[in-house]
Amino acid sequence: MSEEKHHIVPYRVYVFVLLALLALTFASIGITSIELGEFTVAAALIFACVKTFLVLTYFMHLKYDKKYIVAMVIFVFAIFFAVIVITFLDYLYR
Amino acid sequence: MQKENVANVANYLTYKGKHKGLLGWVLSTDHKRIGLLYLYSIMTMFSVGVLLGLAMKFELLAPGKTIMEAQTYNATFTVHGVIMIFMVVIPGLPAVFGNFLLPIMIGAKDVAFPKLNLLSWWLYVAGVFLVLSAVIFGKGAPDTGWTFYAPYSFKTGTNLLPAIFGAFILGFSSILTGLNFLVTIHRMRCPGMKWSKLPLFVWTLYGTAWIQLLATPVVGITLVLVALERMFGVGVFDPALGGDPILYQHLFWIYSHPAVYIMILPAMGAISEIIPTFSQKMIFGYKAIIASTMAIAFVGYLVWGHHMFTAGMSGTAQYYFSLLTFIVAIPSAIKVFNWISTMYKGSINVQTPLYWAVSFIFVFLIGGLSGLVLGSLAANVHLHDTAFVVAHFHYIVFGGTGFAFFAAAHYWFPKIYGRMYDKGWANAGWLIFFIGFLALYTPMFYLGIMGMPRRYYDYLDDFHGGNILSTFGSWIMVTGLVIIIINLIRSARKGPAAEINPWRGKTLEWTVSSPPSLENFDEIPVIAEDDGPYNYK
Amino acid sequence: MYSPEVTQASNFVQGVDTAFLVILGISFFFLIGLTAVMIYFIYRYNRKRNPVATQIHGSTKLEIIWTVVPFILTMVMFYYGWLGWKPMAKPPKDAMEVTVYGRMWNFSFEYENGKRTDTLYLPKDKPVKLNLVALDVLHSLYIPAFRVKQDMVPNKENNFMWFVPQRVGTYELYCAEYCGLQHSYMYSYVKVMEDSVFQSFIADTTKVVAADIDSPIATGKRVMQNIGCFACHSLDGTKLVGPSFKGIWGAEHTVVTGNETRKVTVDEEYIKQSIFDPNADVVEGFMKGLMVSYQGQLSEDDIANIIEYLKTVQ
Amino acid sequence: MEQNAHGAHTHYDAEASKIGMWLFISTELLLFGGLFIVYSIYRYLNADAFHLAGEELNITIGAINTVLLLVSSMTIAMSTSTLQLKKKGATLGLLAVTIIIGLVFLVNKYFEWGTKFEHGIFPGSEHMLNEFSQGEILFFGLYFVMTGLHALHIIVGLIVILFAVVRIQKGTVHENRAALLENAGLYWHLVDLIWIFLFPLFYLIH
Ligand code: HEA
Ligand code: HEA
Ligand code: CUA
Ligand SMILES: [Cu+2]
C-alpha cells in the first residue's frame, strides 16, 4: 500500500489557516455591519467563498490530492453555479 | 435452480456461502446476485405498474365512468407514474445490468463497495414498501401526479407523506448505486483497460452515475420541503404564505429532467453493445459516441425549464430553455447516426436482441422527434399537458428504455442464466409487443394535437375514437409481454445450456463462463495494447 | 385540424401551426429516411449476403456533418417556435380585459362592467386580455382551437394571456393543469360572436338580472351555478368533495372549530360564514382548505339569494 | 490511477474510499444546494422582509458557533497529521476536542432555537401568521429547515467521528489504514463549509 504514504501536513499550516479563517469571519462581520447597500450580500459571499477555498485546499487536503479529484470538485461547484444562474434567468427577467 | 450446471465449478447461482436459501440471496454482496435481486424486484413493480396502466386504459375506453371513480383514476396515474419512474426505469438498466455486467466488463471481481451495493438494494425495497404503504393504508392513495406539484400536494387529503418519503429513499438508493459505479470505474479497471477501451455501456453508466449523484439530492430536498410544509406548515412553496409554486417546479425539474437521461443513457449504452455484436463489426465512431454520452449528461442538466413553458417563466428563460433543449437533442442524433452506420457493410446476424435494438431505434426516433416538437416554444403552448406529452414520454421512456431493457435481457440472458431461450417465441413476443405498442401510443399523439388534456378521467365524445384504438393496443401489447416473460422464465429454468459466447461478442463478459463463476475471473485479465471492446477481425 | 382555412380561429393559430409543421416535416424526413436505411442495411448486409464484415472505425468528416446539419435544423426549429411564441407575451394596450377566476373546479369570467358568466363570451376580431386569478391551486386555461394555454398560479402578479378571436363559433376551454378530483370536469366554452351581438349581450343581461330580482330563489341558484358550487356540493344527498346541500337548512351539523368538535344549527349566519370563511368551521369528515373563501366574489345580496335557494333544497 | 484492484472482496483501497467520500460530499452539497437556490430566489423576491427578519437573529451566537466550527475543523484536520505521525494519544485527544466542540455547537443551537420558540417564532405558529409579513415567514421557514438540516449533519458527523475514535483505539485504524479518519474529517469539513455560508446568509446580511 505504498500510495498510502501521502503528504503529512505540518501543524503550523493548520494553525495559520485557522487564523486566516477567523480573521475572515470577523472581517465579514465587520463589513456587513457597515451600510454598503447592495454590496453587503456580495461582500459577505466573497468572504464566504475565500473561506471555502481555504477549507477545501488545506483542511480537506485538495492541495495535496490528485488533480482529477480537484477537477471533480470544481466540476460540482460549476454545475451548481450554472443551475443557480439559470434559475435566476427566470426570476431576474420576470 | 441448481440442476445440471454448465460450468463444472460452482457458479454464482449455485454458490453456497454463509447463508443458505433465500438469505443467501438477500444478504449476498455479490454484484451478480444483487443484479438479479434488482431484476426480480423491478419486474414485480413493473407488473404492478403495467396493471395500473391497463386499468387506466380500460377506464378511458369510453367517456364517463367505465370501471372506476375519478378519485381512483387520479390515484392510479399517480401511483403508476411513481412506480414506473422511480422504481422501474430509473433503477432499471443500471441496477440490473449495470450491477451484473459493469465489474465483468472492466475486468474486476466486484464493485468497489459491495456492502454499499447491497444496502442500495435494501433501500430500494424499503422505498418500495413505503410508497406501497401509502397506497394501502391511511386516507387513500396519493393523487397528485408523479410530479407532486405544489400547492395541490399540500392541499390534498390523501396519504402523501409515505409516498414522498418513499421516493426520497428510492432517490438515496439511486445515489448510492451511482457513487458505487463511479468509484468502481475509476479504481477497479483491470490492467490495460484504459478509458479509451471501456465498453460503451460502461461509459453510459459513468455518465448516468454522475447525473444520479448530482441531480437526485435536489429532488430529495424538494420532497422533504413539501413534507415539512405538510407536517409543520413551514412556509416554503405555499402561495398563501408567500411561497412561489413555480419555484417548486424549477426544483422538481432540476432533478426530473436529468432523470430522463438517467433512464435513457444506459439504454443507449446497451444498444451500443448490441449493434456491433450482431453486425460483427467495430462500432462506428467510438469516440463520438462517448463524447455524445457525456454531452447529454452535462447539457441535460441545464434544460429543465422546457417542462414549464406555460407556467409563467420570464421570456428570457423561455428562449434559453427552448434553445438548449434543441441543443441537447443533437448528441442523441449523433448516436443514432453512428448506430446505423455501424450496420453498414457489417455481417448482420438477425436475432431477437437485434430486433429489439432496431425497433428501439425506431421508437426512440419517434419519441425523440416528438420531443423536439415539445421543445419548440410555440408548439409547446398548444401541446403542453395534453395526451401528446403522454405519447412522447411513453414512446421514449418505455419505447426507449423499455425496448432497450428487453434487448439487453435477450442479449445477456445466456450469460446471466447459462441457458438459451426459445428464439421462436421470443421473436413472436417481440412482434406482438411492437404492434401493440404502436397501436397503444400513436393515437395519443393525435388526441393531443386535437387538444385532449392529460390526467383526464373523463373526456368529451370527440376523443372517443382515438381512445378506443389506444385501449385495444394496450391489450395486444400485454399479450406480447406475457409471451416474452413466460418464455424467459421458462428458459431460465429449463432452457438448453448456452455457450460462453453465443453471439460472438468481444467485450470481456463473453470471455467468462456462462453463468459466471463467483469471482468472475480466475485471474484478472490484462488487456493488450491492440485489443479493445469492439475488436472484430 | 391543421388546415389553415378551417382553423384560423385566433391570431396565434398560424404561428403555432407553422412551428409544428416545420418540425413535423423535418421529423418525418429523418424518421422515414433513417428507418429505410436501417432496413435496407439489415437486408443488404445480412449474414447470408455478406458473410464477412468490413471493419470501419469511423469518419471524422461524417461526424462533423451529422453534428452540424442537425444543429442547423434545430436552430431553424427554434426560430419558428420563437417566432410563433413571441407575440403571445406582448398584449396590445387596447385589449378588452376579462378577469378569469379559476378554482376547484370551475372557471368564472368577470367582464369590465362587472358582469360574471361561467362561459367566456367574446367579440370577434377584438384583442382580449384574460387576467388569470387562481384561488386555490394551479390551474391552466387552455383553448385548443386558439392554440393558447397559460397556467393560473395563485398569488402570481401579471398572470395573463391574450389573443384575438377571429371566427364566430363555440370552442372548448379546458383546465390543463391537474388540480384534483374533478380536474377533467373543469371545462367550459368560449362563445365568439359578432361585435354587435356581443355588445348587446353584455348590456342586455344586466336587465335579465334585474328581471330576476323578484325571484331570489332562482337568482340564488343561478349565482351558484355560475360560480361553481355544484362542483363540490350535490343537491341529491351524494357526498362529493363537500357535504350535500340536501336538507341543509335548519339541520344540525357537527363541525370542527380549531381543535374542538361542536354542533351547530345551519342558519343564515352559519351559511354566510361557511362561504366567506369556510375553514373556520369545518364539517366533520371533510377536508379543511379545499373550499376557499368567496369574500370579494359574492356580494351580500348574492349570499342572501343563495340562502333563499338553500332553504328550498329538501 | 492505473494500479488496480486485486482480490476485490477484502481489498483495502484508500483512494477508492476517498473518492467515494468526495462523491458523497458532492451529493450533500447539492442537497444543500437546492435549499440555497430556494433561499436566494426568495431573498431576491423579498429583499426587505429578509432584511428585517435577519435582524431578529443573534449575531453573537452565530459568530461563536462559527468560531467553534472553524476550530473543530482545525483539530480534526490536525488529527489526520498526528495519526500519520503515529501519535495515537494526540490523535484521540484532538478528536475528543472536536466532538466536544461539536456538542457545544449543538447546545448553542438548542438555546438559540429555544428562544425563537419562546418568542412564538416557529413553523406554523399563530404568532408568525398574524404578525409577520410573508417574506419573514419564508425567511424563518428556511432558517429552521436549513439550520435544522445542518444540525442533523453535525450529529451524523459526530457519530462518524465517534466511530473513528473507537476504531483508532482498537487499532484497526492506523497510519496505514487511515481512510476512515480521513473520511470522517472530510465529512466534518463539509459541515463546516455549509455553515460558512449559512452564517453570513442568515445572520449577517441585513
Ligand atoms: C427517457 C426519457 C426521456 C427522454 C430521453 C426524453 C428526451 C427528450 N424530451 Fe422528453 N419527456 C420525458 C422523458 C424523456 N424525454 C418525460 C417522462 C416527460 C413528461 C414528464 C411529465 O410531465 O410527466 C417529457 C416531457 C418533455 C417535454 C415537456 C412537455 C410538456 O409537458 O410540455 C419536452 C419539451 O421540450 C421534452 C423534450 C424532449 C427532447 C427535446 C428530448 C431529446 O433528448 C430527444 C433527442 C432525440 C432525438 C431528437 C431523436 C434522434 C434524432 C435524429 C435521429 C436526427 C434528427 C434530429 C435532428 C434534426 C435534431 N420532453
Ligand atoms: C417507464 C415508464 C412507463 C411505462 C412502462 C408505462 C406503461 C404504461 N402506461 Fe404510463 N405513464 C408513465 C410512465 C410509464 N407508463 C408516467 C410517468 C405517467 C405520468 C403520470 C402522471 O401523469 O403523473 C404515465 C401516464 C399514463 C397515462 C396517462 C394518464 C393521464 O394523463 O390521464 C396512461 C393512459 O392510459 C398510461 C398508460 C400506460 C399503459 C397502458 C402502460 C403499460 O401498462 C403498457 C404495458 C407495458 C409493457 C407491456 C412493457 C413495457 C416494458 C418495459 C418498460 C421494460 C421493463 C423494464 C424494466 C423491468 C426495467 N400511462
Ligand atoms: Cu383546474 Cu385542472
Ligand atoms: Cu425534460
Could you walk me through the main structural features you see in this protein, from its secondary elements to its overall organization?
The complex is a heterotetramer of chains A (94), B (537), C (314) and D (206). Chain A is mainly alpha-helical and 94 residues long. Chain A has two domains: 8-60; 66-94. Chain A has helices at 11-33, 39-59, 67-92. The mean pLDDT of chain A is 83. Chain B has 537 residues and is mostly helical. Chain B has one domain: Cytochrome c oxidase-like, subunit I domain (Cytochrome C Oxidase, Chain A, Up-down Bundle), CATH 1.20.210.10. In chain B, 67% of the residues lie in helices and 0% in strands. Chain B is globular. Chain C has three domains: 13-89, Helix Hairpins; 96-205, Cupredoxins -  blue copper proteins (Immunoglobulin-like); 207-310, Cytochrome Bc1 Complex, Chain D, domain 2. Chain C is built from seven helices and 13 strands. Chain C has helices at 4-7, 13-44, 60-85, 195-212, 216-227, 268-276, 300-312; strands spanning 96-103, 106-110, 116-117, 120-123, 128-134, 139-143, 148-152, 160-163, 169-175, 187-193, 252-257, 260-265, 281-283. In chain C, strand 2 (106-110) and strand 3 (116-117) form a beta hairpin. In chain C, helix 2 (13-44) packs antiparallel against helix 3 (60-85) and helix 5 (216-227) crosses helix 7 (300-312). Chain D has one domain (12-204): Cytochrome c oxidase, subunit III, four-helix bundle (Four Helix Bundle (Hemerythrin (Met), subunit A), Up-down Bundle). Helices cover 81% and strands 0% of the residues of chain D. Chains B and D meet through helix 6, helix 7 and helix 8 of B and helix 1 and helix 6 of D. Bound molecules: heme-A (HEA) (2 copies), dinuclear copper ion and copper (II) ion. One heme-A (HEA) is lined by residues 42-43, 46, 50, 53-54, 56-57, 60, 77-78, 80-81, 84-85, 88-89, 92, 145-147, 390, 394, 397-398, 402, 405-406, 454-456, 474, 477-478, 481 of chain B. The site of copper (II) ion has 4 residues of chain B, from helix 8.
